[in-house]
Amino acid sequence: MRTDELIAALAADAPPVSPGGLRGRLAAASLVAAAAVAALVLIWLGMRPDIHIAMRQAAFWIKAGYALALAACGFSLTLRMGRPGARPGPALALAPAVFAALAGLAAAELLLMPESLRAHAVMGASWRVCPLLIMLISAPVFAAAIWALRGMAPTRLRLAGASAGLLAGGVGASVYGLHCQEMSPAFVTVWYSLGVVSCAVIGALLGPRLLRW
Amino acid sequence: MSDEARLKALMLRGLAGDAKAHAALLSAMSGYLRGYFARRLGAGAADVEDLVQDTLLGIHLKRASYDPALPFTPWAYALARYKLLDHFRRAGVRKTAPLEDAGELFAVENPEEGAVRRDVGKLLSILPKKQRRLVEDVKLTGLSMEEAATRADMSVTAVKVSVHRGMKAMARKVRDEDG
After folding, report:
1. Which of A7, A8, A153 sits opposite B62 (nearest CB)?
2. Measured distance CA(A98)–CA(A121) in Å, rounded
3. ipTM
4. In this complex, is the C-beta atom of B98 within 8 Å of any C-beta atom belonging to chain A?
5. Per the CB < 8 Å rule, is B52 touching A83?
6. Are A17 and B64 in contact (CB under 8 A)?
7. pLDDT for B19-60, tens place per residue?
8. Cys bridge to A184: A14, A121, A151, A176, which one at CB 3.0-4.6 A?
9. Is there a contact between A22 and B65 if contact means CB atoms under 8 Å apart?
């Protein structure tokens, strides 16, 4: 086919494009997947029994805020990485800053508590399963984010995959927080972050395979 | 009007459903893309036109990924570079294209516009990469033919011929534009 024929054929099929379409698609995909995994987690693992008490404590909201902030950074990065030539933007610096803030809080908490309690504050009762469960819960959200990204035009596939992983990990950690009874900032800093970062690493590894177009 | 302003205006009208503007954009882009890929793959390489078409198709299919709040040329450049790297990967060549300024895609002036800035850098950009480097080495850096040959891993005769042809091509370019 000659190039001018191709151009004529393409121009003949050029319906208007809605400007906010991609953002809406990524938001809708993430929310649907988040609602689905939340329902699954509540059925399978169950809501933490002390949720009413927990919701009155700052530590509960710090944990939720941390996970949601990482999810928001992942969302912003994913959207930008779906656009050729766009810079990663503020979220690239914001995600580590959010982590540093929580880590600082955790360090302060550990310093102030008696030495004998520190090990428990870090390891909690569920450190063995926490990162794995977060990764498992994140998987459907990751699939949804990848689906949305495939409708965009990512050109840096590792970074795009990692962004989708961060988004999924953040959502997964938020949902897991409904079940998990650990509250210490030190526990969240280590084990929640490990789960979320693992999602981002897996995303970076899978990105070039899943996102090529 | 600058490339950016002109192309962005066409892109925005195309996104709003103006088929004529969309065709004009693709047509203008095909010229830039041909130059860009030819400079990367060597002029006359068989894959240049395939890549041009593949990238035009990409521009068309992925136009929703253009954010009207951002400039158009970096978007188009990133897309073209992605297609070039993808081409290298398919061809099994371990090759990278440096991440350059978007201007790289628009380096050769659109012939229809005629206004060509004739500085040395622009003239050199009409030459394929390898030849351009030889001309730079010999004529600008001041290496001897022998040194340039060692650097490029070519025979001295081949370097002489290549530099000579490069100079002739550039001279022809200047003449064409003056006439």
Report:
1. A153
2. 20
3. 0.85
4. no
5. no
6. yes
7. 999 999 999 999 999 999 988 887 667 789 999 999 999 999
8. A121
9. yes
